[in-house]
Amino acid sequence: MVAVNQEQLVAPSPPPPAPETSELGLAEAYEEHFAFVWRSLRALGVPHAALDDATQDVFVIVQRRLGEFEERSSLKTWLFGIAYRVASNLRRSSRRHPTEPLPAHELASYRPGPHELTERTEAVAFVEQFLNGVDEAQRAAFTACVLEEMSTPEAAEALGVNVNTLASRLRAVRAKFMAAVAARGDER
Q1: Do 117 and 125 meet the contact criterion of CB atoms below 8 Å apart?
Q2: What is the pLDDT tens value at each position of the chain, 188 positions in all?
Q3: For residue 11, how many other CB atoms are within 10 A of its CB?
Q4: Taking the model in full, what pTM does it have?
Q5: Which residue in 128, 40, 138 sits closest to 90, CA to CA?
Q6: CA quadruple 53, 38, 133, 123: dihedral positive or negative?
Q7: 3 state SS of 182
């Protein structure tokens, strides 16, 4: 079994230079949270070819609504909620206008050896395949709490659900993940 952590799951290309803005907080939010938003969108099912556009969409929304952010939650929680809605809208749109699936791309890495790269690629493919097989609510719970290591209350707030509902979804998806890992181990 290959251990997977959030950095191995997805490794975004370095963020483009921060946009010029008259709002002081946007550039800082962009600089600090670009990789988080990119990883979250990837784990929430945004196709590789649409990741850059979806990430830009998140920060366009942030620019429009930054003045409305009341800091009742952390910025990370708020950004994840926006990323979740952008990913949901993209999935809904793609169901209405289906496209040909894109081939899997190798993820950028920090020059691992061939064996390590193969293990990472297999682990990422396994996690992505698992996430594609669960419903949207469980996928979001897994992404927020397991991959992005958000607390249950933070994730519940970001997703707009009750903490107990999120905890229930998280227990169910973790059980499914452990079963999938066990089944994968039996196949090897």
Answers
A1: no
A2: 445 555 555 555 555 554 443 344 788 888 899 999 999 999 998 988 889 999 999 999 999 988 888 777 888 899 999 999 999 988 887 666 665 554 555 444 456 677 787 888 888 889 999 999 999 999 999 999 999 999 999 999 999 999 999 999 999 999 999 999 998 877 66
A3: 18
A4: 0.57
A5: 40
A6: positive
A7: helix
